[in-house]
Design a protein that fits this description.
Oligomer: single chain
Number of strands: 7
CATH class: Alpha Beta
Strand content: 15-25%
Radius of gyration: 17 Å
Structural class: alpha+beta
CATH superfamily: CheC-like
Length: 217
């Protein structure tokens, strides 16, 4: 985890946001488990404050190529939800999802793979926001998931450029998850990257709204 910048958020605020994200990821992991009919486990959620793609890349430990599935949250609690897989692992989770179809002799093409990964994103993101909406009493929607694959530095540059504004350090909440009872290693990361404005909204709802650096509108 990147060193925490304590002047940006208090410990109480970070703890509240981390717990909100952790419960939401738990819901997303359950939804994925039901979707692929395999047990899904997860680590405790961690906060990461970053100023660049290089800092965010520390999350994935220098993996050279990744697959990114992402959605925007355009409503009151705005931001981004992102799932990151190593390229090879993204293929393994698609194989798990489409196992019966592949055994029946269908050959998977690129479009099928992308569609399956977007569907996984839709299932996980939808469940994540449903849980978050229940806890904040805010109705939340997501945009249709996007798909990108390539060098990790390029993919994370795109993620950072979507999230950072006005050189304000960006906070995200990261959870590592993995699928059990499968022959291939399947693991990934889900990130919640709230916008600075939405952080004010969430912290106010959670009763810990006093803040330093966020813009007023």
């Amino acid at each position: 985890m990147i060193e925490n910048n304590s002047h940006i958020l208090s410990k109480i605020q970070i703890d509240a946001l981390r717990e909100l994200s952790h419960i939401s990821v738990g819901s997303a992991a359950t939804a994925l488990s039901e979707f692929i009919d395999k047990p899904v486990r997860m680590n405790p959620t961690a906060e990461i404050i970053f100023n660049s793609a290089e800092e965010l890349q520390m999350v994935i430990g220098g993996v050279p190529r990744i697959t990114v599935v992402a959605s925007d949250i355009p409503e009151k609690i705005s931001g981004h939800l992102v799932i990151i897989f190593e390229d090879e692992i993204s293929q393994a989770i698609v194989n798990t999802l489409l196992g019966a179809t592949l055994k029946a002799g269908f050959e998977m093409n690129v479009d099928m793979r992308i569609s399956a990964l977007k569907e996984i994103g839709q299932v996980m993101f939808g469940s994540y926001l449903t849980a978050m909406g229940h806890m904040t009493s805010v109705s939340l929607m997501i945009t249709p998931p996007s798909y990108d694959s390539g060098k990790s530095s390029k993919m994370l540059d795109l993620t950072v450029s979507r999230s950072r504004k006005d050189d304000i350090p960006t906070i995200c909440f990261e959870t590592f998850f993995w699928v059990e009872s499968v022959p291939d290693k399947i693991e990934g990361y889900i990130l919640f990257i709230p916008s600075p404005i939405s952080l004010k909204v969430v912290l106010s709802i959670l009763g810990v709204e006093k803040f330093d650096y966020l813009p007023s509108s």
